[in-house]
């Protein structure tokens, strides 16, 4: 008998969803193995701009899953977890970068017959995702003295700067959200003091300086802010051709990073940003003493390892520059995450934990529906399997969900035609 779970990573731009079959006896497996033990039936990445609500995304996902594998309509979804880019309160969220999307777990449960839906902050999901990593999926930049039950911390710079931590309960790790990326930016030298003053005026005014967070420097936008500062601080070092190329890009930060090899101002930008990144990682390490591992995630670190690797790297020098307590940090394992799907993995972990918790409360599993064979074993995250059909005593099977999704899609099309005709 198998169970089925949906997991998703929902950002401002994209929604990535996956449907997994959880074969009997695998729900309590070590989390680093669930990607191999659970069969990926269907996954897809959707552009949010094409949908007016997240419910429509789930509807489309169900239709697509059925088209790829018709047996999907004969299963019931036990649990679902969605990692969302926004603060979650009472299992409801309004996405930070897509304010018109309100996502409510209860609405998803009733709309699609899913027995239990949970929404989690995206960086909390990243924290749970760490538990699925195998050694080839991260690069160790400081070995430290690993303790398998000590706290774990995660710092990740990309679009913004996220932080979370995990603690061991005696049975498993739990992840907790923070807003650590929004702590005050602490300048450590004269150039950084000038940067702070510049940003205070840029985001405030001369009469009312703005409060500046570390995220204003350590993020994609932070790279742009820092480069912009250097063009004013050191105008003689500006290369006009390079400067035009940078600001002509949709993502100037990537161009700045690429130009750092032969454009001095881009190099200074990346060095200052990575030093600030290392200093903040050191601050996080002092707060949580993460001898279970300090993980560096997000899009910036894996593409800029030249600033991180090596005992004398810019990142590690700033990390260890903690005065009287610097020696404490020598034993903290530091690992740079290479995997780009931590959020989806973490949502998978939570969905399976929900399944285990439900089974421990009810003391029973959902009975199997006859006539459908289980999926082939040995599939990994990128390989689809054939689902073993199950039907919950209280759930709605995927056939009903498919009809609901299809009818909703048809109604949406008819409504749009009616609106166009009226116009």
TrEMBL record:
Key words of the record: Kinase, Membrane, Transferase, Transmembrane, Transmembrane helix
Gene Ontology molecular-function annotations: ATP binding; D-glucose binding; glucokinase activity
Protein's UniProt keywords contain Transmembrane: yes
Extent of Polar residues compositional bias: 380-392
BP terms from Gene Ontology: glycolytic process
Protein's UniProt keywords contain Transmembrane: yes
Spans through the membrane: 398-420
UniProt region (Disordered), positions on chain: 363-392
Top-level division of the source organism's lineage: Eukaryota
UniProt-recorded name of the protein: Glucokinase
Native source organism of the sequence: Monosiga brevicollis
């Amino acid at each position: 008998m198998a169970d089925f779970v949906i997991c998703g990573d929902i950002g401002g731009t994209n929604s990535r969803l996956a449907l997994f079959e959880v074969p009997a006896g695998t729900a309590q497996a070590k989390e680093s193995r669930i990607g191999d033990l659970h069969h990926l039936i269907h996954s897809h990445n959707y552009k949010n701009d094409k949908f007016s609500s997240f419910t429509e995304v789930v509807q489309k996902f169900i239709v697509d899953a059925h088209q790829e594998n018709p047996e999907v309509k004969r299963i019931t979804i036990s649990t679902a977890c969605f990692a969302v880019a926004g603060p979650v309160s009472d299992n409801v969220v309004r996405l930070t970068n897509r304010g018109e999307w309100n996502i409510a777990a209860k609405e998803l449960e009733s709309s699609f017959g899913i027995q239990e839906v949970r929404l989690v902050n995206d960086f909390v999901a990243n924290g749970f995702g760490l538990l699925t990593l195998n050694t080839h999926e991260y690069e160790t930049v400081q070995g430290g003295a690993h303790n398998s039950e000590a706290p774990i911390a995660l710092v990740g710079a990309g679009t913004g700067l996220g932080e979370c931590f995990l603690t061991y309960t005696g049975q498993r790790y739990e992840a907790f959200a923070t807003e650590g990326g929004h702590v005050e930016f602490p300048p450590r030298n004269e150039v950084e003091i000038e940067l702070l003053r510049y940003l205070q005026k840029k985001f405030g005014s001369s009469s009312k300086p703005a409060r500046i967070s570390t995220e204003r420097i350590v993020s994609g936008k932070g790279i742009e802010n820092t480069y912009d500062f250097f063009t004013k601080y050191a105008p003689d070092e500006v290369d006009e051709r390079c400067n035009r190329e940078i600001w002509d890009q949709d993502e100037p930060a990537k161009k700045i990073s690429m130009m750092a090899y032969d454009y001095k101002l881009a190099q200074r930008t990346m060095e200052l940003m990575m030093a600030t990144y290392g200093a903040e990682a050191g601050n996080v390490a002092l707060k949580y003493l993460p001898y279970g591992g300090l993980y560096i995630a997000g899009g910036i670190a894996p593409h800029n390892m030249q600033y991180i690797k090596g005992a004398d790297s810019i990142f590690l020098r700033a990390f260890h520059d903690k005065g009287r307590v610097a020696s404490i940090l020598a034993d903290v394992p530091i690992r740079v995450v290479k995997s780009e799907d931590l959020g989806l993995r973490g949502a998978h972990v939570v969905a399976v934990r929900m399944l285990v918790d439900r089974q421990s409360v009810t003391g029973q599993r959902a009975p199997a529906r006859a006539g459908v064979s289980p999926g082939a074993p040995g599939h990994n995250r990128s390989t689809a399997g054939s689902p073993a059909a199950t039907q919950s005593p209280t759930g709605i099977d995927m056939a009903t969900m498919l009809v609901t999704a299809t009818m909703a899609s048809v109604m949406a099309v008819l409504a749009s035609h009616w609106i166009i005709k009226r116009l």
